[in-house]
Amino acid sequence: MAFNEDGSKMTYRESLQNILKEGQLADALGIDIFALGEHHREEYSISSPEIMLAALASSTSRIKLSTAVTVLSSDDPVRIYERFATLDGISNGRAQIMLGRGSFTESFPLFGYDLEKYTKLFDEKLALFNELITKDKVTWSGEETQNLANQTVYPRIEKHQLPVFIGIGGTPESVLRTARYNYAMMIAIIGGEAIRFEPYIELYKNATEEYGTQVHQIGVHSHGIITETDQEAYDIGWKYIKQSMDKVGRDRGWPEMTQKRYDFEVGQGAYYVGSVETVAQKIAQTTSELGIDRFDLVYGTGGQLEKTRLETIKLYATKVIPRVKEILVKAGD
Amino acid sequence: MIGIIGAGKLGMTLAKLGQNVGFRINIAGSKEPDKIRLAVSVLAKGATPMFVKDVIKSSDIIILALPLSQYRQIVPDQLKGKLVIDAMNYW
Q: Which residue range or ranges hold the Luciferase-like domain (chain A) (predicted)?
């Protein structure tokens, strides 16, 4: 949810319309992927990302359309398959899915699921989803899910070609699971140095060897703000990223973000906040240090103004991405 | 000797930090040790994966690092005489 310049909150309708325009802009400017999260909280307007992606499917031409993430534990794998098969059809094969346990827990009581079954729900639903995505007919007997007998779900995704990412936040079992199911991995880094996550990449690679599966794309997802000057981006982040983290922290018992912490995150940590050159250098560093294939910049955190959201997208597409590629080519990666 | 019950994000991080400063660490997940062998070998190299009961038996200090919703799995009698550090939280 963005705020208006006069400090008032946008309506949900305005926010949803703006996000569609942002997706269209990202497509027009050549960004590879537009990924939307699923949240069931006041400060977010998107609880149904696939509906947004469907609107974008018909108003964009080449950008890949993904969720980040679809909260699998509190959803129905059969309906997820149907929705993404539909999205894949209308977007002419541009759909991707990113599955995760989500970083919030509102969806459990909201849809009638028991939070105590957090792990079991995800495990079982991922197993069913994997059956649906890899087989034409599924026979399934579930405890937390439905029973199916030789069932085909429609529409079909052509040649089973829906890229599947699992979003992970540092739980070792999530990494193993991603490797076991032969999926791509997206690491959400919301704090700390990116290099700290290198062992998870090593674990993913070792696990694919052990399970006889393949190493698929590995990505990192972190917050960012890009403006003309470092100072401007710094100031925006100090207001909005702090606001957002402190709000979450109040629920989870984190202390408020100090300026020292913020400075660390902007300097060596997980915030890609600054001018084009600053952000490009940092993304290039993370990309080469971790050897990743994809970087997702999370924009707009904490209710940033629409003009900041648009500026971040424009500079990311037109200046940062080309510069990152240039730095990596020079470095020989 | 430090024992850690729970081999998730928290338990594994504590195991690694303990190893780094020279403690010997025993660690257990909710199932058999083999289930966490691979993760321990990368994320907390040198720590020893064990069953929960063996972690308790062989360690003087026990850190509880399991999800709060699973706390009933802990048998209080087994922890008699040990220094128990509760690192669980609501989240």
A: 5-293
Q: Which of A42-56, A100-114, A272-286, B42-56 has the lowest mean pLDDT?
A: A100-114
Q: What is the mean pLDDT of chain B?
A: 93
CB contact under 8 A, B42 and A116: no
- Cis peptide upstream of residue A155 (ω within 30 degrees of 0): yes
Does A161 contact B at CB distance below 8 Å? no
Q: Is the pLDDT of residue B90 over 80?
A: no
CATH of the domain at A138: 3.20.20.30
A102 and A58 part of one domain? yes
Q: Does A108 touch chain B (CB under 8 A)?
A: no
Whether the CB of A176 is below 8 Å from some CB of chain B: the reply is yes
Are both A219 and A266 inside the same structural domain?
Answer: yes
Confidence of residue B91 (pLDDT cuts 50, 70, 90): low
- Is A170 a domain residue? no
Cross-chain residue pair B42–A169, CB shorter than 8 Å: no
Amino acid present at A32: D
Task: Report CB contact under 8 Å: B38, A200.
Answer: no
> Domain check: are A122 and A264 in the same one?
no
Within a domain: A167: no
For residue A261, give every residue at least 6 positions away whose Cβ sits within 8 Å of its Cβ, in sequence order, or none. Answer: none
**Look-up: residue for tokens 């699992």?**
A166
pLDDT tens, residue by residue, A203-251: 999 999 999 999 999 999 999 999 999 999 999 999 999 999 999 888 8
**pLDDT of A199 strictly over 70:** yes
Per the listing, tokens 């794998």 go with A77
To test the contact with chain B by mutation, choose from A73, A101, A115, A171 the residue with the greatest count of B C-beta atoms within 10 A, namely A171
Greatest mean pLDDT among A91-100, A115-124, A247-256: A91-100
Mean pLDDT on B65-89? 89
Please answer yes or no on whether B43 and A253 come within 8 Å at the CB atom. no
**A171 lies in a domain?**
no
Domains of chain B in start order, with CATH, are 2-69+82-86 (3.40.50.720)
Give burial (CB, 10 Å; 0-12/13-18/19+) of A162.
Answer: middle
